[in-house]
Design goal:
Mean pLDDT: 87
Bound molecules: adenosine-5'-triphosphate, magnesium ion
CATH superfamily of the largest domain: Histidine kinase-like ATPase, C-terminal domain
Largest sheet: 5 strands, antiparallel
Strand order of the largest sheet: 2-1-5-4-3
Number of strands: 12
Structural class: alpha+beta
Number of helices: 14
Low-confidence stretches: none
Strand content: 15-25%
Distance between the termini: 111 Å
CATH class of the largest domain: Alpha Beta
Length: 451
């Protein structure tokens, strides 16, 4: 805006005011010839010009000040660029670059840390659930997803909807409200029943609890093993108690005077001896089993002739079979060599043959056969005995499991024979199968790899 334009504009404004005043007080013509008006106009123009020149000078002063402060330092007196100003600018540029590099490295480091944490979280086999202060899901890992059959779409949903366990939800609520750690054990259903040990811990930001981390440890296997150990101890105690009670009872009867009755005494001593044998058998089987189950147990595979293996097993059961009136049959064509630990495998086959003879009534038949298919061979031991009910077939390989406890015990059985068989066969990397029909007979098969 030029200074004179400011003056003219100010004068026109004043004239307009004058005209309005005049029109209100008299005619326009008389107003224009009025000397006061002319004088007034002249005065207003001079005043405006003076104002504009002042305004202009003030602007120039302002610009000079800005120039001196911000621009002039960059030039030397002779109009050359000031080296120091450039140096300062370069230092500033370097400082900014160093800071940028530092942040770049920090961001890179943080993102590496983040992916590392994600990998760790995903590889942890325990289920992890992180909830915010509002009890809603902020993070889960894959293990938790599997445990509760949920995907990543659970983010933001209340934890109670995923876990659906009052005890766990109670522990999370308590943790969020009071910032306390707690541990609960729960059983969850679904496809497979599982025992979970759940640990809830608070996340603090200063003094304030801002969330909770819940870790789910799957202790199903541990609980199973504890149950098995309890059952095992109970079974062993029970098995030991029966013969021991018998031995003690007959020994007391003898000492109470039965010794004088020679016939009775001979019978009682026979019973004591049978029960002592039974105890011995039980201890032998228990020792065998514990050896087979120990970590140090290794089978030693060597080239074995199948015929010799079966012959030695048959030798052990031939006498009991004959005395019971059970026919033993075995026929095999050709020579067949397999890789196996002869001592342990012979023990397993003897157990199967012993069962076949034991559970086949008088007049029955036990057959040992060989089935071949490529590199595979199966020794099959079939009997025409009492058979095994379908409901028991899955359990007969468990320790101490017997279909008819009374009958087995009466025959001196401990219920450990088939458990030993399974251990030996599986240690060879082979399998044992069973097929049976109540009243018609049973067939056990053991597989071998031929060489
Ligand atoms: N050939 C078979 N015929 C019918 N039942 C069988 C036969 N083999 C095994 N069983 C059943 O399986 C159960 C478990 O067999 P296992 O050999 O483990 O124990 P056991 O023969 O009772 O005692 P042990 O072999 O320790 O002296 C037996 O009690 C019996 O009920
Ligand atoms: Mg047996």
């Amino acid at each position: 805006m030029r200074w004179w334009f400011v003056g003219v504009q100010a004068s026109l404004n004043l004239l307009l005011v004058w005209l309005v005043v005049s029109l209100l007080g008299g005619s326009l013509a008389s107003s224009l010839t009025d000397p006061f008006l002319l004088l007034f106009l002249l005065f207003s123009v001079l005043l405006s010009a003076w104002c504009a020149s002042r305004l202009g000078r003030e602007w120039v002063r302002e610009i000079n000040r800005e120039f001196r402060t911000y621009v002039a330092p960059a030039f030397e007196d002779e109009g050359r660029l000031d080296e120091r100003a450039f140096k300062r600018a370069d230092e500033l540029r370097k400082t900014l670059q160093t800071t940028a590099d530092k942040y770049h490295r920090r961001i890179g480091h943080l993102s590496t840390e983040k992916s590392r944490l994600e990998v760790i979280l995903e590889s942890i086999t325990e289920g992890i659930l992180v909830t915010g202060q509002d009890g809603r899901v902020q993070l889960i890992n894959r293990a938790l997803g599997h445990l509760f059959s949920v995907g990543e779409d659970v983010y933001g949903r209340p934890a109670a909807e995923i876990v659906r366990q009052a005890a766990v939800q109670g522990a999370i609520d308590d943790c969020l409200e009071n910032g306390v750690e707690s541990e609960v054990e729960v059983e969850i259903g679904g496809g497979v029943a599982r025992s979970l040990d759940v640990h809830v811990a608070p996340i603090f930001n200063g003094e304030q609890c801002v969330g909770a981390v819940t870790v789910f440890y799957d202790i199903t296997r541990l609980r199973q093993l504890e149950r098995m150990r309890r059952d095992f101890v109970a079974n062993v105690s029970h098995e030991l108690r029966t013969p021991l009670t018998s031995i003690k009872g007959y020994a007391e009867t003898l000492s109470d005077g039965a010794l004088d009755d020679r016939t009775a005494a001979t019978r009682f001593i026979g019973i004591i001896s049978t029960n002592a044998d039974r105890l011995n058998l039980l201890l032998d089987d228990l020792l065998d089993l514990s050896r087979l189950e120990s970590e140090q147990f290794r089978i030693e595979k060597r080239v074995c002739d199948l015929r010799r293996l079966i012959d030695s097993s048959l030798t052990t059961v031939r006498a009991p079979a004959e005395s019971k009136g059970v026919a033993l049959q075995f026929s095999m064509e050709g020579e067949h060599s397999v890789l196996c630990d002869a001592q342990h495998m012979e023990n397993a086959l003897t157990n199967l043959l012993d069962n076949a003879v034991k559970y086949t009534p008088e007049g029955g038949r036990v057959e040992v056969g060989l089935r071949l298919k490529g590199k595979r061979a199966w020794i099959e031991i079939s009997d025409t005995g009492i058979g095994i009910p379908a409901a028991d077939l899955d359990r007969i390989f468990e320790r101490f499991y017997r279909v008819d406890k009374g009958r087995s015990r009466a025959m001196g059985g401990t219920g450990l024979g088939l458990a030993i068989v399974r251990h030996v066969v599986e240690a060879h990397g082979e399998q044992v199968s069973v097929q049976s029909e109540v009243g018609r007979g049973t067939t056990f098969g053991v597989s071998f790899t031929r060489i």
